[in-house]
Amino acid sequence: MLNRVPIAWQVFIAPSVIILLMVGIITVAELALQRQQGAFLRVVGGSFKTSTATTKLLLGIAEVHSDVMRYAQLRQRVPEGDAALLKMSQSIEGGYARVDKLFSEIKASAKGESDTISNITDFLTIHRAVARRILTGAPPTTITISTLLAHYQQLQSYVVELASRTLESAQATEAESSRYVEKVSRYLLYGALALILISIAVTYYVGRAISRPISALVDSLRQIVGGNFVVSVPGSDRRDEIGSMARAVEVFSAVSRELREKSAQLEIASQHKSQFLASMSHELRTPLNAILGFNEMMLDGLCGEVPEGFKDPLNETQKSGKHLLGLINNVLDLAKIEAGRMELALGDYVVPDTVESVRASLRPLAEAKGLELLANVPPDLPLAFGDSGRLTQCLMNLTGNSLKFTRQGKVEIAVAQQGGLLRYSVTDTGIGIPPEKVGSLFTEFKQTDATIASEYGGTGLGLSITKKFVEMHGGRIWVESEVGKGSAFIFEIPLRVRQ
Prior knowledge:
About 70% of the residues lie in helices and about 10% in strands. It is of the alpha+beta class. It has helices at about 5-10, 15-75, 85-110, 115-135, 140-225, 240-300, 310-340, 350-370, 390-405, 435-440, 450-455, 460-470, and strands at about 345-350, 370-375, 385, 410-420, 420-430, 475-480, 485-495. Helix 2 (about 15-75) packs antiparallel against helix 3, helix 6 (about 240-300) runs antiparallel to helix 7 (about 310-340) and helix 8 (about 350-370) runs parallel beside helix 9.
């Protein structure tokens, strides 16, 4: 059913269902909270408020009654019109005013307690009348005091009764609210569990609807990578993105089949090329070695005295022949590496001796260009294990390149030990390499610029062969350069190469 719905919509189905269910639960919770809030306000604004005001009323009446009793006792000891009596009389009137105010608040909030309110009103009126007789009439008698005390006790009992009823009402409202909250909480818990189960079910269904065809496509891709180009790709008839992916996989399968055929043809051509290069290099190197040998014999005078006019051409011939021999050796090495026939001659070697041999070989070239050729090798380096001949060739290639592309300044060969690794670096103050050219430095027959190639020469094989020899040692090589300031070619290899 979902194979006609775009995946962009399918992924929203499960979240949308979950969101809707969550909105429903939140709405129920909001309604429950509103009801609980209403119950709380009824308790606080009604019963609880009445109970609190009743307590204050009880205390106010007790205070006024106490003042009246003290006034009656003081009236028997001091004459009428005394300042203390006047002050106490004013205090009693103020107390009655506060009691009236509290009682008004109680009458406004205590709904349904009209009988008790009426009784309190009656006895409060009688108590006030008796108190005023004491304040304004003759000295109080025992009967007057007894009447005041009796009405006070009755008034006190009615106020306590009102406080008890309002407290009971508050407790009943609180209990009802608690039961409602417990009920709603239970429903919310059930709703949350239902939400979880529904979410899991919807997510599983939608996820399976998306993941199963993708898994099938991945399996098809795995078979295609394994070489089975006639695999059936499921889902190509779908109208969603998975259908588009399936059709793309079919195209990928066809293209991969063509690439596999082309790759096989290129592999055969590469093998033929390597065989041709190896054969041609061997055929060229044999007569070239003979030419160089005879030329050197002539320069050494073994074939007789060489006229002065012939010495310079013979030296140039010797120089060009060695350059050509080096080129042929590089091509032969590259052919052997590509053919998988190149093997390292592993053995112990002394790192300072290897670096010094490179420095000694290239010192004449450095002196001819007026450059410093430095070596910075710690004397306490341990004995290393590797192919010293190939490492010497790597350092010769890197150092020769640095000397070639450096007009002034210096070239430095340095070695440092970092744990179980040896880091070789060749640093120069040459022309530098543009950042966009660094990525192609180690490609066969590739140079940074045609103008530079014509000015400085070279075939572009040295760095490629160096990279392959470093990798055969289990290491890596990279370059750090800044145009106009120089370059640093760095490679790391294990101190002890594994056999």
